[in-house]
Write a sequence for this structure.
């Protein structure tokens, strides 16, 4: 069959594409009705110019201040919140993911735990932070608890996909060899899941690192609260120091996390 004959034999979906385009166009028009642009306010232009001035003229005394109010300490606290939140969330997500996988447990039990995951993912991280601040009080511990719970929601969803894609033929072979449950998990399950689990945890760490800054705005520790205070009181050189530190931090973490994930992907394919 020639290329032209093969193209002519393919189903023609022109009408479906037209309908899909009209639906998307209708959604854009409908959404635009509720969004109005009133221009940039005078205060907004002042804030924008102040932030630009702060980035180009950061406060070096504040940027290299090694006390608890300085940028290095607050950045390290933000990293610590993201690291602990990711580790606790990734560990707690493992049993929840197995209990949510239909190829591991009966479907009724899996659906119950999936509903729990959906509940966690439905509530935004800022709302979780506001809830836990009432329980633990403001501070870095609140940020760790919040990120741990939010991490469970996303990580579990991705863990479930990896678990349900397991090659069950390996487990059947190990079962035929007389392996016990622990040996089947160690030899047949963990090698298939380890690369995917670690890659997912690293990806979530990238998200948590950015969320830790946002959670600090509501008092959950990290660099967010001092950053908002600096913007509120128009301390633009301090704002610039915060933003430069965050930009450098994100670039470094993004570089190393991409390298690690690519190595894990090549190892899993090999």
């Amino acid at each position: 069959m020639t290329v032209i004959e093969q193209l002519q034999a393919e189903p023609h979906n022109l009408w479906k594409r037209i309908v899909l385009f009209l639906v998307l166009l209708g959604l854009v028009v409908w959404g635009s009705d509720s969004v109005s642009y009133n221009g940039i306010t005078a205060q907004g232009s002042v804030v924008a110019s102040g932030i630009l001035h702060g980035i180009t003229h950061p406060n070096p005394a504040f940027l290299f201040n090694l006390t608890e109010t300085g940028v290095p300490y607050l950045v390290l606290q933000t990293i610590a919140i993201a690291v602990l939140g990711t580790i606790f969330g990734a560990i707690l997500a493992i049993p929840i993911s197995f209990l949510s996988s239909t190829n591991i447990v009966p479907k009724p039990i899996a659906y119950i735990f999936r509903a729990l995951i959906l509940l966690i993912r439905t509530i935004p991280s800022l709302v979780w932070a506001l809830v836990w601040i009432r329980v633990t009080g403001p501070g870095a511990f609140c940020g760790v608890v919040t990120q741990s719970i939010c991490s469970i929601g996303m990580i579990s969803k991705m863990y479930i996909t990896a678990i349900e894609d397991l090659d069950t033929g390996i487990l059947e072979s190990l079962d035929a060899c007389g392996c016990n449950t622990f040996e089947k998990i160690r030899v047949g399950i963990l090698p298939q899941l380890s690369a995917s689990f670690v890659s997912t945890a690293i990806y979530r760490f990238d998200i948590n690192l950015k969320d830790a800054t946002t959670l600090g705005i509501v008092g959950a520790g990290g660099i967010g609260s001092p950053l908002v205070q600096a913007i509120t009181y128009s301390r633009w050189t301090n704002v610039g120091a915060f933003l430069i530190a965050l930009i450098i931090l994100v670039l470094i973490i993004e570089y190393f996390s991409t390298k690690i994930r690519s190595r894990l992907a090549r190892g899993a394919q090999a």
The two ends are 36 Å apart (CA to CA). The chain has one domain: 53-265. The chain has twelve helices and no strands.
